[in-house]
Amino acid sequence: MERLCESEGMNQNTTVTPGRYTAFTTDPGGGNPAGVVLDAAGLGTEDMAALAADLGYSETAFVTAGDADRHRFTVRYFSPLSEVDFCGHATIATAVALAEETGPGEITLDTRVGEIPVLTGTDPDGNLRATLTSVATRSRPARDAELDEALAALGWGRDDLDRELPPHVAFGGVHHLVLAAATRERLADLSYDFDGLAAVMRRHGWATLQLVVRENPALFHARDPFPVGGVVEDPATGAAAAALGGYLRTLGLVPEGGTVTVRQGEDMGSPSTLTVDIDLDDPRVRVSGHAVRLPG
Q1: Separation CA 130–CA 219 (nearest Å)
Q2: Which terminus of the chain is more exposed, N or C, with fewer CB under 10 A?
Q3: Which residues of 165-203 are buried (b: 16+ CB within 10 A; e: fewer)?
Q4: Strand 219-226 to strand 259-264: parallel, antiparallel, or no bridges (unpaired)?
Q5: Which residues are catalytic?
Q6: pLDDT tens per residue across span 219-228
Q7: Angle, in degrees to the nearest 10, between helices 88-102 and 238-250
Q8: Cβ-based burial of 102 (10 A; exposed 0-12, middle 13-18, buried ≥19)
Q9: Which domains does the chain possess?
Q10: Eight-class DSSP state of 18
Q11: What's the number of CA atoms in the CB half-sphere (13 Å) around residue 281?
Q12: Does the pTM exceed 0.90?
């Protein structure tokens, strides 16, 4: 997809062709697609917003400045509706795209939420993988009023929730309401009030709802409605996975070994796998996954 962009900061029209990747999978048919623009220095905010809207993915990442010698880059993220402070799956996609250009290794991304270190490497089978380290995570119990608003928009009741995993608002760069469903069937049956939930999320400043089911202490299934970004559901949400890691640390539910696998996108036909590493002595969380370039 090409777009002719014009902005006050540009001397001439510039044609931009975003890279298209899907993150947290090695299968082009799975994961969460993201746009990646590695040279967005000449684009203005309106240009980036328009390009992201045209592309239609839940997020597009724009590298607006960089120092390849220092392995440091500035990144901005846009959903189809607005700029967002941080996006995990677009970070993984951007890191893999940069690794394709300059080789794997350590980089630092400067985002609106702060520094995000990312390590990229190649698996024995040749697939590129990236691990981001989040900003410091935190988590607090959800208030009754905000919980009731969210449940009403979802069409859920309190009896649909897992009593052993209390509702929290968790932060891993952006805020997410974490709701644990009591059954896998409840999670699979997701049909919600798009506009109503978007209004609730805007009112409380939530990026997504992190809806999960715990299969065992080290394995969760997740779904993430994203109506505030103009998207019904995210197939993989790295920022929410980081927030979930902080949530589990707060509740004392980190499994032995500190690693949790999150399977997301299964009910959308776009399976994704996110690996979450939690260090009890570090409020930051590491989220890992693959990304592959989409054909075409």
Answers
A1: 20
A2: C
A3: bebbbbbbbbbbbbbbbbeeebbeebebeeebbbebbee
A4: parallel
A5: 59
A6: 999 999 999 9
A7: 120
A8: exposed
A9: 3-133 (3.10.310.10), 138-289 (3.10.310.10)
A10: -
A11: 0
A12: yes
